[in-house]
Amino acid sequence: MAAYVALERGYFAEQGLDVTIHHSTGQHLQLLLSGDVDVTTAAAGSVLKRRADPGVPIRAIALFGQRGQQTFIALADSGIDSPSDWEGRTVGYRISLPPEYLAIADAAGVNRGLVQEVRVGFDPRILVQGKVDVLAVFKSNEPDTLRKLGFEVVQFDPSAFGVPALGLTYIAREDLIAEDPELIARFLKAALKGLEFSFSHPEETLNIVMRYAGKEDRDHMRFMLEAEQADAVSAVTDAHGLGAMTLQQWQEFHDLLVRYGALARELDVAQAFTTQFLEAAYEEGRLVWP
Amino acid sequence: MRAAWPRPAAQRVAALLPTAVSLLVVGVVWEAWIAVAGTPVYLVPAPSVVAVRMSVDPGYFLGQGAITLAEALGGFLLGTGVALSAATAMAHSLVLERALLPLAVLVKVTPIVAVAPLFVIWFGFGVMPKVLIAALITFFPALVNGVTGLRAVNPGALDFLRSVSASRREVFFRLRVPSAMPYLFAAFRVSIPLSVIGAVVGEWFSADRGLGAVIIVAHANLDTPTLFGAIFTLAVMGIGLSLAVSALERRILFWHESTFIV
Fold first, then answer.
1. Which class for A61: exposed (0-12), middle (13-18), buried (19 or more C-beta within 10 A)?
2. A121 to B205: CB separation less than 8 angstroms, yes or no
3. Do the chains contact at A119 and B208, CB–CB below 8 Å?
4. pTM for the structure as a whole
5. Of B120, B220, B222, which has the smallest distance from its Cβ to A95's Cβ?
6. Minimum-distance CB partner of B121 among A29, A56, A125
7. How far is Cα A136 from Cα B185, in angstroms, rounded to an integer?
8. Which residues pair with A91 in a beta bridge?
9. pLDDT > 60? residue B231
């Protein structure tokens, strides 16, 4: 969303960049690694997992999701009000068992032996059809989709249980960061300007997003925007600006992934991200423009 | 012209030689290209890397492949059984053909990936949705060839059977079924590899076992050696099933010209 705004508002052009935004369905990382794109988005968890195995040379350059994207939902009338109610129920996940789920279960003392855990793919209707009782979803998407279908849900947000998950990042290849840091710096500055604009001008941001969103529902896009904005701010961004990140945040998330077996090996977390471009973009927490 | 079965062992080996050589050439070129271009393994693995991955844990691929194979065969048997039942009815009734064929075409043109998630919702997480998707994808070839084959009877033979007051049942089993067999085997050769694809697509959407699930997880993890190992296992499975159908065809239709080689 920040990139769309930066493109349409001319922020990239002001930074001397001619940016083309490519769309892909799940191939972001491969496109980055093959050199087809220079910057892409990736979940912070994916950055750590893919650096651990197979050891791809990528680094996060900004953290837009100060909290994890994943949440867990149940139907409001299901009688599931806390994680302890998961016992005796079925929990559905997309591809692999999320460490956030394991962390919540641990924190709440859930006996996982009493929970049936099944891979169910990406269709949230599996919940309303009663095939699962709890479903792992993106907090900026499925809760609103189901609400529009007439189903109220309760959420179990990992951050509410003290789970230090992180969300969406911008990433670049290490070779490009080393060879052309100016390019990355200008890109990120424009994107951050776009993100700032989205906070102060939500309706204009939606107008821009809808130009790229085809037949998507505007209200749903608004829900997504608001959810992503809510997770884009934290005490860290209050102090250092949008997109900011710290070693402590990454280390805690790394340790979470290690604890629940989501990382193939332990990493030097400091190598997984760089704040050099954020530091160049901000001065005392304010974006320097142009 | 002579019958192709049984063929001498040396001739069968010679028949496989062109395939083996072409596969070898592809493998060597692929390996060399990876080495020269320096392509990292997370983008494309060299064949040798895939071979090592499979040799390290062959039981993994065999075990996951067995699950997919069982689902595929279940779907093939179900889809073919339903298709042949419908074909029998349609071959005897133009009205039924006109009523059912558009529905069959509708099934044929429906993108499997569009309905597969719904099958999970309707039929749960077990074997059933995978079998049904495999059945769906194998249904059409058996239906169309079944109808065509059951109608492609020798007119003279049909007149003869009618002249001796043969019942419809006798005409069906003594004339229509034998006449349809070459058509049915042609359909089976098409649909049996399709059944594997159907099972894999079904596994993409819900399974935690089977080669479809292996592919999804390996793709998400950029684990290309495992991904290609699963693809290779599927390829071997598809080829094996096709060869099995061909062998069965030669054994059953030894009298038919389709099993002859010139």
1. buried
2. yes
3. yes
4. 0.84
5. B220
6. A125
7. 45
8. A117, A134
9. yes
Please check whether residue A27 is in contact with residue A13, taking contact to mean a CB–CB distance below 8 angstroms.
no
Q: Say if residue A163's pLDDT is above 90.
A: yes
DSSP string of A159-214, one letter each residue: GGGT-----EEEEEEHHHHHH-HHHHHHHHHHHHHHHHHHHH-HHHHHHHHHHHST
pLDDT at A240 exceeding the cut of 60: yes
Assembly ipTM: 0.76
Torsions phi, psi for A253 (to 5 deg):
-70, -45
Pairing status of strand A134-138 against strand A90-93: parallel
Identify which of A278, A272, A229, A275 has the alpha carbon closest to the alpha carbon of residue A252. Answer: A272
Strand order in the sheet with A70-75: A116-119, A90-93, A134-138, A70-75, A153-156
Average pLDDT over residues A187-215: 93
From A133, A161, A189, the end of a domain falls on A161
According to the CATH classification, is domain B59-261 in 1.10.3720.10? Answer: yes
Question: What distance in Å separates the CA atoms of residue A14 and residue A4, rounded to the nearest whole number?
Answer: 14
Structure tokens at B70: 């069982």
Residue A180: which domain range? 2-67+165-287
Q: Can you say whether the dihedral through the CA atoms of A107, A109, A113, A116 is positive or negative?
A: negative
